[in-house]
Amino acid sequence: MNERNEVVNNIDIVIEGMTLDLKRYVNKGKASKYVVDKNNGYIKNLTKARNFIATLMNSVDFHIVMALLQDITKLERRDPELNGHIIKLCKREGNRFGYLTKCY
User: Please, what is the average pLDDT of the chain?
Assistant: First the structure.
């Protein structure tokens, strides 16, 4: 299983566990409406976040950013004195480039 699927799968496991726990709580009887509504809200929000993460992780931009971050981390391990990086992204062959600088 790749890293992307593992993240989403772990969130799915949490959502399933929360749902089962809530069903058990309700089936015991005398369940508090407040507790049920609150937990349903958590499950709903977590599901929205899971869907957003799944969409984001399947985008091409995410893969590019993750690859760049891995390369930057490797460079910084080799040379902890680095204080910036120059990154050239090419959409197609050619020699016309725009240059962007961002310091934070």
Answer: 85
